[in-house]
Design a protein that fits this description.
Helix content is 3%, strand content 32%. The chain contains one helix and twelve strands, in the order E-H-E-E-E-E-E-E-E-E-E-E-E.
Length: 175
């Protein structure tokens, strides 16, 4: 399938739609988020290796199972997942509204993925409908280490995380 260049549709916390922070200074650490369709159906038969092949080294992939889209995130220390609200000053990195976020029970600031040199951490932000990691409910405001291949569920939206590195899931996920 042809890769389509994707639009940047999300911004790092604290930046506006022009990539500038509250002071008006351009944010050079702004994440680059691109979207590409991935033909995988049915979702129950996701092949992690075919998705991983589309993720460049150094990037972090979020495969939206519900839609078949792969979001690639580069150059970022935190990825806030939620819904962008027009009436609120909610700054998020990944807006799940286009994937049915509001109807699926995703909070405006639902969860965050914290990126360090050698690991990724998923933290629930006290969301209304909770966060599940590999079919296990996370406690509100708690954090868990992510491995490539893990499945995150925010409301009814399922997201598989994919990245290159030593923390790759080798055993199958619970059904």
């Amino acid at each position: 399938m042809d890769e389509k260049p994707a639009e940047d549709r999300a911004y790092i916390d604290g930046t506006n739609s022009k990539g500038k922070d509250e002071t008006g200074i351009p944010d050079k650490s702004k994440a680059r988020i691109t979207t590409q369709p991935v033909c995988i159906a049915p979702p129950e038969n996701i092949d992690i290796n075919s998705i991983l092949a589309k993720v460049p080294p150094g990037a972090f992939g979020l495969f939206i199972v519900n839609s078949g889209d792969l979001l690639l995130v580069e150059r970022v220390e935190r990825i806030t997942l939620g819904r962008q609200a027009e009436d609120a000053g909610t700054a998020i990195s990944i807006d799940l509204t286009p994937y049915g976020g509001e109807q699926s029970g995703v909070s405006r600031r639902h969860a965050v993925i914290l990126v360090s040199q050698d690991m990724y951490l998923l933290q629930d932000l006290g969301s209304t409908n909770g966060t599940r990691l590999n079919a296990v409910n996370m406690l509100p405001n708690s954090s868990q280490v992510l491995r490539s291949g893990d499945m995150i569920q925010l409301g009814l939206i399922r997201i598989q995380v994919v990245f290159h590195g030593p923390r790759t899931r080798t055993e199958p996920l619970p059904k």
